[in-house]
């Protein structure tokens, strides 16, 4: 689960992580009011207007309708802030992470201008190689960390967090000195990082990235940006975070799948997949690529799916205009093959079948499930194995 920058900063502020003063606005009029208040409070006429979408690279991005305007703009008055917001709000911003279709900006963050002396990179995420949360830091703040990793990996510093004791002060000091920080900035960085690590743990984050982390002219350390995402498996402990979800930033099909307790991720291929079990789903996608096509989605209906959930899953797949064929691959254990057959037949009758459909069933009640499909009178192709199923669906979708 992802949230907007302004929401992440509010959470961090409440947990003791220093962030700039600012406020969210949805109209140019609101932008003017927020900017005027910031100017009055800080005595600084400079404010920053930042587009709020779930994608990075906003500063380098461009609006389709206003190609001369980037997603982040520094202005010197409340009136200028309102004028630039008028060009941002309601318009589509294209960045390196949105793809060419871009995302519509429906809100902006208005923040105080900062006297930036230095920019750094700081993030905490799970390192799957070690099985531990890991702090990453770099002197290359404001840069795409992927570029830094590819061309100057030695500039990325790491500290692994022991889950039994958490991030220790000596580790934070080690990173501070490695980044070239000295008093009075170094102890402030240590305090910042320890608070950030505590926030990461408290919120069950999947990623907490600050890029850039800035050192100001008066030696303060603040999060100038904040990318925060949460571990979906832990959201049951944080019901309050659900209120921060922005459905306009999420794929409608993924939202519908979530309502049915289905694990669905849209991909860029043309073979729709419906599978039970994440491991089997991954294997199914792999073999589709092996035989010469690409999966259009990851969709795990789970081990205890009902016929209704199978029907819902089928509808989600067929709604994707890129899908030219569908492969259903089920190993019946808890979920019996006849249940899958019932759901597939009901879905085909309700939605209609405009693309080839191959079904491979194995496990509990497999013969009954196959018989139901064969006697349904529908254009459903059955397969005897996963390789057979993948080969058949790829052949059927060829021009």
Automatic annotation (TrEMBL):
Q: Which residues bind Mg(2+)?
A: 211, 225
Q: Which residues form the ATP-grasp domain?
A: 9-242
Q: How is the cofactor bound?
A: Binds 1 Mg(2+) ion per subunit.
- Please tell me one Gene Ontology term that the record gives under cellular component: cytosol
Q: Does the keyword Transmembrane apply?
A: no
Q: What does it catalyze?
A: succinate + ATP + CoA = succinyl-CoA + ADP + phosphate; GTP + succinate + CoA = succinyl-CoA + GDP + phosphate
**Which of this chain's residues are annotated to bind ATP?**
50, 57-59, 111, 114, 119
| Stated name of the protein | Succinate--CoA ligase [ADP-forming] subunit beta
Q: Which organism is it from?
A: Nannocystis exedens
Task: Name the gene for this chain.
Answer: sucC
């Amino acid at each position: 689960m992802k949230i907007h920058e302004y929401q992440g900063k509010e959470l961090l502020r409440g947990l003791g992580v220093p962030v700039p003063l600012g406020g969210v606005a949805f109209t140019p009029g609101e932008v003017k009011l927020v900017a005027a208040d910031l100017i009055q409070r800080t005595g600084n006429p400079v404010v920053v207007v930042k587009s709020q979408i779930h994608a990075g690279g906003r500063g380098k991005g461009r609006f389709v309708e206003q190609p001369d305007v980037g997603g982040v703009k520094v202005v010197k008055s409340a009136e200028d802030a309102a004028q630039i917001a008028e060009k941002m709000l309601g318009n589509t911003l294209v960045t390196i992470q949105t793809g060419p279709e871009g995302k519509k900006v429906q809100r902006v963050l208005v923040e105080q201008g900062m006297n930036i002396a230095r920019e750094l990179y700081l993030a905490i995420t799970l390192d799957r190689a070690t099985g531990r949360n890991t702090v990453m830091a770099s002197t290359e703040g404001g840069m795409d960390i992927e570029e830094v990793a590819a061309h100057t990996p030695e500039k990325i510093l790491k500290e692994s967090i022991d889950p039994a004791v958490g991030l220790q002060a000596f580790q934070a000091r080690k990173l501070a000195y490695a980044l070239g920080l000295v008093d009075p900035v170094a102890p402030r960085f240590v305090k910042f990082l320890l608070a950030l690590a505590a926030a990461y743990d408290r919120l069950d984050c999947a990623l907490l990235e600050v890029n850039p982390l800035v050192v100001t002219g008066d030696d303060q350390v603040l999060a100038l940006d904040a990318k925060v995402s949460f571990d979906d498996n832990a959201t049951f402990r944080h019901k309050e975070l659900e209120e921060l979800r922005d459905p306009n930033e999420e794929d409608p099909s993924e939202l519908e799948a979530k309502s049915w307790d289905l694990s669905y991720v849209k991909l860029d291929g043309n073979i729709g997949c419906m599978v039970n079990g994440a491991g089997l789903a991954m294997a199914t996608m792999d073999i589709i690529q092996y035989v010469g096509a690409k999966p259009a989605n990851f969709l795990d209906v789970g081990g205890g799916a009902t016929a209704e959930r199978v029907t819902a899953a089928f509808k989600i797949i067929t709604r994707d205009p890129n899908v030219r064929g569908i492969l259903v691959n089920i190993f019946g254990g808890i979920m019996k093959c006849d249940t899958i057959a019932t759901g597939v037949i009901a879905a085909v009758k309700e939605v209609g079948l405009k693309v080839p459909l191959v079904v491979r069933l194995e496990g509990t009640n497999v013969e009954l499930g196959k018989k139901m499909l064969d006697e349904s009178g529908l254009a459903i192709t059955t397969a005897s194995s996963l390789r057979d199923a993948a080969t058949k669906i790829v052949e059927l979708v060829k021009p």
